[in-house]
UniProtKB/TrEMBL annotation:
GO terms for cellular component: plasma membrane. This is Undecaprenyl-phosphate N-acetylglucosaminyl 1-phosphate transferase. Coiled coil: none annotated. PROSITE patterns: MRAY_2. GO terms for biological process: cell wall macromolecule biosynthetic process; cell wall organization; lipopolysaccharide biosynthetic process. InterPro entries: Glycosyl_transferase_4, PNAcMuramoyl-5peptid_Trfase_CS. GO terms for molecular function: metal ion binding; phosphotransferase activity, for other substituted phosphate groups. It is a multi-pass membrane protein. PANTHER family: PHOSPHO-N-ACETYLMURAMOYL-PENTAPEPTIDE-TRANSFERASE, UNDECAPRENYL-PHOSPHATE ALPHA-N-ACETYLGLUCOSAMINYL 1-PHOSPHATE TRANSFERASE.
Length: 369
């Protein structure tokens, strides 16, 4: 009976219910596993300690990525029977590789070279076995179809950039998790429009894992951090969504977002990419040091220096990024280079307003004194 039911089941006819079921399963697994993870971390002293560039005081469990991985794995293996099992198994393989690398880094410290190698392998696993890659830039700067190997290398670059972007912004309460949640909700919407049920369910599994995590991440009593495990897993999933969305949009001239997918991805990820490129420029060009050397030059550190709290900083950044997403959806039918210019100008202005305001406030105080 169950076999016949599965054979006659059409996922596209029940996409809403599958989305809700995936959120429920993931939420249940994560909310029941996080307390146990916190207890184990405290008993074994597997904590993140304050000091250096840390914006926190005291010691906090930094194994939130374990709960996120478990939630995603359980969800896509239980619901995956009626979905695209090939792509989901490959995704699970890449996630498992990054999970163990991140876990070792959170507990024992892992060299940047080994992390980078693991990220490359996880990305190549999907690119080569599914041939899901960015084949063109939809006419940005008149760049259209790229040669195969250029396409593979560029797609690898996108994976590495996004994975490390989420790793780098994980510096204050809620920032990486909330930005990831916002991006994944946005991707779940466009994948729903494309009827890409496997990606919708994967997105739902991450949403269900992030909601209870963010509650703990913002908590003062039972606080938990993502750790490298969590930030790399989130970055990998979001990189996968970015590449798949652009790929599906570019290969189908009739796709709803055929002329806008690269710009929409930039909007979904505007702050992580802006901060990463900015921090790399500061470290490489100004300070002449490794781009992975820790410091307090991130934009979220600048907000803290201005006197904003962790919650206020996260709220400002997420609201600003949400405005950019709305703007980009509104202009998605424009010529793509005009879309890009509008996004870059709008983003630069919006993220500069707080610093301009603080400078004007400082100047007025000096004049009054």
């Amino acid at each position: 009976m169950v076999k016949e039911l599965l054979e006659n089941f059409i996922p596209q006819d029940h996409i809403g219910w599958l989305f809700l079921l995936a959120i429920f399963i993931s939420f249940f697994v994560s909310s029941t596993s996080y307390p146990a993870i916190i207890n184990v971390a405290k008993s074994k002293n597997l904590m993140a300690f304050s000091g250096g560039r840390s914006s926190h005081s005291g010691s906090v469990p930094n194994l939130g990525g374990i709960g996120i991985f478990l939630s995603i794995a359980v969800t896509i293996t239980t619901i995956g029977a009626v979905l695209d099992t090939k792509i989901l198994l490959l995704i699970l393989g890449g996630l498992t590789l990054l999970f163990f690398l991140g876990l070792k880094d959170d507990i024992l410290i892992l060299s940047p070279r080994k992390k980078f190698t693991g990220q490359l392998l996880a990305a190549l696993l999907l690119i080569l076995f599914t041939d899901t890659r960015i084949v063109s830039l939809s006419g940005i700067f008149d760049i259209n179809i790229m040669p195969y190997w250029v396409s593979v290398v560029f797609t690898l670059f996108v994976y590495i950039l996004i994975i490390n972007a989420f790793n780098l912004i994980d510096g204050i309460d809620g920032l990486a998790g909330t930005l990831a949640l916002m991006a994944i909700v946005s991707f779940s919407y466009v994948f729903y429009k494309y009827k890409d049920i496997s990606m919708v369910v994967l997105a739902a599994s991450v949403i269900g894992a992030l909601i209870p995590f963010l509650y703990l991440n913002f908590s003062k009593r039972n606080k938990m951090f993502l750790g490298d495990t969590g930030s790399m897993i989130l970055g990998f999933v979001i990189a996968l969504f970015s590449v798949r969305f652009i790929n599906r949009s570019e290969l189908s001239p009739d796709a709803i977002y055929h002329n806008a997918s690269p710009i929409l991805v930039l909007a979904f990820l505007f702050f992580p990419l802006l901060d990463t490129l900015r921090i790399f420029f500061i470290r490489l060009v100004i300070h002449k040091k490794s781009p992975f050397a820790a410091d307090r030059n991130h934009l979220h550190h600048r907000f803290l220096i201005l006197g904003f709290s962790h919650r206020q900083t996260t709220a400002i950044i997420v609201i600003t990024n949400s405005i950019l997403i709305v703007i980009t959806f509104l202009i998605r039918n424009w010529e793509i280079n005009w879309q890009l210019a509008t996004l870059l100008i709008s983003g630069t202005i919006l993220y500069s307003l707080y610093f301009v305001f603080n400078w004007i406030r400082g100047e007025s105080k000096m004049n009054m004194s």
